Amino acid sequence: MKKVFAVLLAVMLLVSSIATVSAADNPTFVLGKAAFANKGDTAVMTIEVKNFDSVSAIDFTVLYDGTKLELMNISDGSDGSLANLLPNAGKNDFAGATVSCVEQGRIEVAWDSISGYSVGLTGVILEFEFKALVDGPFVEKLGILTEGEDAPLLRKDKNEGKELEPFDFSVEEQVIGFNVSGTVTSYLDANEKVTVELYEEGNAEPSYSATVTGNSGTYSFSEVPSGTYTMKVSKKGHVTKEISVTVTDGDVKQDVTINLYGDVNSDGYINPKDATLILQYSAEFDVNPNLDAADVNGDSYVNPKDATLILQYSAELISKFPVETNG
Ligand SMILES: [Ca+2]
Ligand SMILES: [Ca+2]
Questions:
Q1: Would residue 159 count as lying in a domain?
Q2: Which pLDDT score, from 0 to 100, does residue 81 have?
Q3: Are residues 169 and 185 in the same domain?
Q4: Which of 77, 149, 207, 248 has an alpha carbon 20 to 30 Å from 179's alpha carbon atom?
C-alpha cells in the first residue's frame, strides 16, 4: 500500500513539473493591473511578454477603460523594452517600435523589421501611466484584442528571416498585491454571520469585505496592495475587534478571536466567573479583565452594575446586554 502511494506521489510530482515547464514556455502576454484609491491618483500598468522568441514583426492593440482612466505617459519597460531590445533602433531598417494612443481607451503598438531581422522578447516591454478620472477604490486592468484585424500579430522567423509565421500565444493577468487570510474564532450561534472588513488607512469605506459563518470561519482577501490597514471583525453579541494589518511584500496570515460581551475572562462562556472578575477589578484587585467585553451596559465604566447584568444573563433573566441594543 505504501509503495503504491509512493509511486502515485512520484507520478503526480512528475505530471505537475511537466505542466509547470510547458506553461512557462508558452508565448504569453501578461496584462498589467493597478489599484486606484482616489480621483487624480496615478499608477503604472505594464505589458509583459514571456517567451516570444525570434520576433520579426509586432502589431497589437492595448485596451483600457477611457471613462475611468486618462493615459498620462508611455515609456519603455524596465527590462526587455522594445527600444532596448532592437539593435540600432531608429537606424536604417531597424526602426524602433511606435506606440501611440489612437483614441481614448486604445493604444496601438507596431514594429516591423524590414529586413526580417528578429529579436527575442521577454520581460516588461511597455509601461503606461494612468490617472484616475473617478473616485476609488477600484482596480483596473489592461486588455488586449485577441480577435479581429487589430488582434496581436507577432511573427517569428521560420527560416533565416525568409518565412514568417504568427505566434500562438496565451494571455494572463498580472497579479498585484498579496493575500490576506486567516481564521476568525467566535462564540454562540455558528450560523450567525461574522463580518470581516479591511479599511485602508484614512478611508471611511472598507476596501475589502467578507462575511463568513461558523465559530471557526476562514476569510481570504486577494490582491491586497502593500500598505497599512485596519481590520474590523464583528458578529452579533461580540465586541467588535479592530486590529492593524500591515502588508509589505508577501501574503499575510491574520487569525482573529472575537469575544462575547460579558465574557470578561475570555474563556468563551458568560457565567458568574465573569461577574466575580468585575467585582474584583472594581475592588482594585490585581486582575486583568477584558474591559471592552466587561462594559455590558455601555456607560464607559466597568463596575458592579456590569457584574449584576452578567449574573442576570447567566440566570437567563435577560437574553442580551444593553450595550448590544445601543449598537
Ligand atoms: Ca467567561
Ligand atoms: Ca458599564
A1: yes
A2: 58
A3: no
A4: 77
What is the per-residue pLDDT for 164?
Answer: 67
Q: Is residue 2 part of a domain?
A: no
Q: Are residues 157 and 99 in the same domain?
A: yes
Q: How far is ligand 1, taken at its centre, from the CA of residue 253, in Å?
A: 27
Question: Do 195 and 226 belong to one domain?
Answer: yes
Same domain membership, residue 192 and residue 156: no
Q: 150 and 193 in one domain?
A: no
Ligand having the closest approach to the CA of 290: 1
Note the pLDDT tens digit of each residue in 13-27.
Answer: 444 444 444 445 788
CA dihedral 169, 78, 53, 154 (to 10 degrees): 50
Residue 169 CA from chain centroid, whole number = 26
Ligand 1 centre and the CA of 296: distance in Å?
Answer: 13
Residue recorded with cell 457565567: 271
What helix, strand, coil percent values describe the chain, rounded to 5?
20, 40, 40
The CA 243 to ligand 2 mean position distance, Å, reads 23
Q: At which of 204, 222, 257 does a domain end?
A: 257
CATH number of the structural domain spanning residue 247: 2.60.40.10
Angle at the Cα of 10 from the Cα atoms of 4 and 11, rounded to 5 degrees = 90
What distance in angstroms lies between residue 259's CA and the mean position of ligand 1's atoms? Answer: 9
For position 6, what pLDDT does the model report? 57
Q: How many other C-beta atoms are found inside a 10 Å radius of the C-beta of residue 149?
A: 8
Low-confidence ranges of the chain (pLDDT < 50): 1, 11-23, 87-94, 161, 327
Give the residue numbers spanning the domain of 251.
178-257
CA 304–ligand 2 middle distance (angstroms) = 8
Same-domain status, 233 and 282: no
Which residues neighbour 260 within 8 Å (Cβ) at sequence distance 6 or greater? 187, 188, 237, 238, 239, 268, 270, 293
Instruction: Indicate whether 22 belongs to any domain.
Output: no
